[in-house]
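User: Structure please.
Assistant: Input sequence and predicted structure:
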Amino acid sequence: MKSMTTSRRDFGLHKALPVKGPQPKQFVPSGENMDLLTTYKQDYNPYPVCRVDPIKPPDGKYPCGDKMECLPTYKADFLPWNQPRREPLRPPHHYRPASTKFDNRTTHQDDYYVKGLVNTMSCKPPPMPKLCNIPLEDLTNYKMSYVAHPVEKRFVHEAEKFRPCEVPFESQTTHKESFRGLMGEPAKSLKPSAKPCALDKPFSNTTEFRDKYQAWPTPHVLSKAPATYAPPEEKMDLLTTVRAHYTYPRGSPAQSCRPVLQVKKGGHFEGSTTTKDDYKQWAHTRTEPVKPTPQLSLPTQPLDYLTTTRAHYVPHPPISTKSCKPPWDGPRGNTPVEGQTTYTISFTPKEIGRCLASYPEPPGYIFEETDAFGHRIYRPSSPTGSPRNSRLSVGDLENPNQRELAASA
C-alpha cells in the first residue's frame, strides 16, 4: 500500500523564509527645551472671584399676629364621662398594726450578746537550757566498718567467629527420605453414566400448576363514555342570599355625630406659595402597561376526559405460553455409591510407636554426657542400631516383661 495521501500530494513543501519586520528608527535627541505648557494652563486663566447674589425670591409672606385656635378631633369627640369610681373587688383588710413602738431587736441580738476578750493560757513548753555544749559525733557504724575494695574490670564476652561447616549439604529432608510416592491406580469417576434421551416420547407440556390451577373467566370491563358538556342556556343572575333577604327597606345614611367646629374668620388669607407659583402641574395622561401578546390559544370545546392510556392501550386477552420444563421421571433408585477411593486403596496401616523421650532411660541407647546447656546426650548401644529398631509400640507399655527386654537390649 502506498503512503501517498491527498494532503501529501496537493500540499507540497515550500521554502519558508524568515519574516523581516520594519526596523525601528534610531532615537535622535532634540536640542530644544520643552516649554511644559498644557492646554489647561493656556485656556483656563484665573479670574477675580466675587460673591454671587442669591437667586431665591424674597419672602412675600406677612406673619399674622392673631393666635390660632385649633381643636383636635380627639378632644372634640372623646370627652370624659362623669361617672363615680368603682370600688375594687378585693378581700377586706383586717390587719391593724400594733400601737407600741417597734424596738428593732432580733433573736440573734438578744441571745448572742458581745462578750469581752478571754485570756487563754499557752500550752507551749518553756524553753529549757542546753545541758551539754559538746558537739555531736558524726561517726557511724557504716563509716567505721565500711572497707573500700578495688573495682575489678568488667568482663566482656567476645563472640566467636562464624566457621562454616565443611561437610557439603545433602539436600535430603525427612519427607524425601521417609515418604516416597507409591504408584497407585488412578481415581475412578463416581459420576453416573449418562442415559440416552428418550427421543421417541412426546414432550409433555402439562404441569401440576396447569392441572390444579385453572384460569378463571375474566369479565369484560365496561368503560363508561364521558357525558357531553352542555352549557346552560339561562343567564346567571349573580344574586346572593344576603342581597335577596337583607334589603334594608327603611335604611338611611348614618348621620355624623361630630360637632361642627366654630372657626373664627379673620382677614384675607393669602394662599399662594412659591411652590404653587413656580411648580405648575403638568397635564399628563396615564401610560398603559406593556403586556406580552398571549401565544397560547385556549380551546373553546369542553374537555373530553380521555387520557392517552385509555386511547392507545386497549386490553387484550392473555396469551398462554408453552412450558419448556422437562418431564419428571419420578424418584431415582437407591443406587449405592462406590466406596473405593485413592485413600482406601493406597493407605497402608502402620504401627504407632512411642516417643523415646518419654522413657527415663531410652532403650537401645547409652548415656554419654551432659552438655553446657543441660542437654543429656545418648549414643546407640550397637553400631547397627537405629531409632526405628528401638521403638516400642503402645501395647508394649502394658507388658512389663517386654519393657525389661527392651531395656536390657
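The longest strand covers residues 365-370.
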